[in-house]
Amino acid sequence: MSYIHETISNLKNTSPAQAEFYQAVEEVLDSLAPILESNKHYQQQAIIQRLVEPERQIMFRVPWVDDEGNIQVNKGYRVEFNSALGPYKGGLRFHPSVNASIIKFLGFEQIFKNALTGLPIGGGKGGSNFDAKGKSDGEIMRFCQSFMNELYRHIGPTTDVPAGDIGVGAREIGYMFGQYKRLTGRYEGVFTGKSLLWGGSLVRKEATGYGVVYFAENMLSVKQESLKDKKCLISGSGNVAIYAIEKLYQLGATPITCSDSTGTIYHESGIDLALLKELKEGSRSSLIGYLEEYKEAQFIPIDDYPKDGHAVWRFSADAAFPCATQNELTLADAQALIENGCQLVSEGANMPSTQDAINTFIEAKISYGPGKAANAGGVATSQLEMAQNSSMQTWSFEQVDQRLQEIMKNIFQTAHKTSIEFGQPGNLVLGANIAGFKRVADAMLEQGVV
Ligand code: NDP
Ligand code: 2IT
Predict the structure, then answer these.
(1) How far is the C-alpha of 281 from the C-alpha of 47, rounded, in Å?
(2) Which is catalytic among the residues 104, 125, 205, 230?
């Protein structure tokens, strides 16, 4: 295990103050010991040292003018992490918490996630510390245009293809695509998650949430179980959470919570999906508005959360779907879930569980689907969007959904089979990390020292 210590300590020296990035690297390296021991060529070829260093990191100034005429300045990022398997692919996150550590952890995760899909896509991520809350539509457009004034020169349909993430949906993609087109004069598939009116794919909007639930069904199927009649906890109330809830209802389960940056809603008879969409898709108002329609629901404001975790995980349920953000599920949350009978966790968010929470799930032997496997349906469907764009075709909802289901099944089976092969049956963290690593590392070996 000394290579883990050595790698992290090198990173701390060369890339200081990037706690989330070290956390993501450590989690992956922790799983790789068995494959590194039996395949010395990975170490001889410095694969780990090369993997943890992005191929290219772009940081830039994003100046824009607000509605009062004041000049605002944000930071912009694009980390082009690894292109062994294809063009850099990964979302853009706009959130005030964004910094180099967050973008690097997301980009690092994306390498293995994209490899697991089996599709030809490399790993990248980008974003800005821009806070969309309270901004007018005009301000959002001017910000997106300024962001693109720099980013456009680094991206392209065969080099780097961004998409959405927290704070970036169809509206932001539209403004960025418009500016890209104006700057380059090219109408091409340089983004995914585009509107259906101009090159988007059916199912991309739903894909991450649906995929997380498909992944959960696959985990349950090996135990001859299903999601039907299961009570489910969901965190978040954005794109991933909403479509996870939609698919859970379609499969006969009952989602009883959702959350946002202001607090958690608990609604015992089931979250009203239409109301949630009304509150959150487009307008992004606080979940407290849910209580105006449902007096019997509870709202727990974040100030009342337990000191050691999050209110959403303290309710009793059969399954949990973290779909908000990183480190939103702590050790105490994991213990509470298990004590209350939770048998399955499928992660829609990236790195939502802390390392000690993950260890708790693995020791308890519940079904645990790590984000890089369970939430890969979004990026996989992005690749299907790229395939449609480059072949000038449009596939039906059923065709894309069918492909998504096959991909999620395939990811589950690959991770599950790998966990058995490496002596820890059912440990999908180990299975996903080793299977993703192997595909990228073997491609890197074949492409020489680049
Ligand atoms: P959205 O912006 O649509 O929604 C994010 C949700 O999480 C909102 O409810 C937001 O609350 C809440 N949230 C965000 N940050 C925090 C925070 N620091 N504390 C509390 N709540 C927070 O994003 P997505 O649904 O697209 O993304 C959710 C997660 O899924 C992220 O981890 C993302 O990386 C991951 N993911 C997304 C994919 C995609 O295709 N979109 C693909 C794979 C993973 P509020 O409404 O108050 O802002
Ligand atoms: O974390 C993710 O996989 C995403 N935000 C989606 C990336 C993409 O390119 O669709």
Answers:
(1) 42
(2) 125
